[in-house]
Amino acid sequence: xxxxxxxxxxxxxTRNLRSFPQGIRNCYTLNLTIGxxxxxxxxxxxxxxxxKPSTQFELYLGPNxxxxxxxxxxxxxxxxxxxxxxxxxxxxxxxxxxxxxTPFISALELRKLMNTTYLTRQGSLQxxxxxxxxxxxxxxxxxxxxxxxxLKVSLKRLLxxxxxxxx
Amino acid sequence: xxxxxxxxYNFGNWxxxxxxxxxxxxxxxxxxxIAMVTASVPTDPxxxxxxxxxxxxxxxxxxxxxxxxxxxxxxxxxxxxxNIMYNNKHIYGPFRPLNFTTSSVFTPTEVVADANGQYIxxxxxxxNSTLPPLLNAMEIYSVNxxxxxxxxRKEGW
Lengths: 167, 157
Fold this sequence. Notes:
The structure holds two protein chains of two kinds. By secondary structure, chain A is mostly beta strands.
């Protein structure tokens, strides 16, 4: 089911979403190249498309649980990032219904990274925080595409989720 | 580069410095220049810069990537040199950030909590250093082992 959200100030990539009222498990399957490394980002912004902005469902990378997605209100985005090296030529991102809530997704982004970076002995890397230490402006930002407002929203969310402190 | 999202992080007991000069970001990690032209230093120049990950289960493993560039014009008798410690163990250094050029330092293996469940990185100036440590940007990732093998079967789950 495709939904166009009410016109608002959110960035274009989260102005639309796809919800999955049918079925337990719905997947996006991408044909890519084994061994390539990607930054994968999944964005969830309910935006008030129905009257149930409080949702909980699961996000899977292939057969593995990536994260539980929880949205509590209409305007707070949840963003999850993974740096992942493909183990097959296929990448599947799945949304799994775990209760009554209807899974949805606002944007799924992939950026190819250099295979020489972010190497691990085992496993893939989930972003905990990427910090511009010493920044003199107090808003999140990204590079190449500059989507300030969404990131302001995500910053608050990140801070809530991560309980990260520096001293 | 790579459309990564960088979240500004400022802290009360760190001070911020910045430069109007350009900073070379051409290493493999290519942190954005806008992040590299600013840095934090400890407000007390004799203090260590401690970075503590709190509120996480002690089973979580992390990889950490720190990006450094000297962004002050050092006088000939000035030295900025520090060691990077993790849970009181030396992991890198002594290290001198390069002038207006990015160096990325990262944990080659996953870091785990100590017996008290703590994860504490510390940048500590050496006895040779006339200046406190500095930190321009930092990435912290938790490890997801993704234990189930991906298969090429065509049918869904």
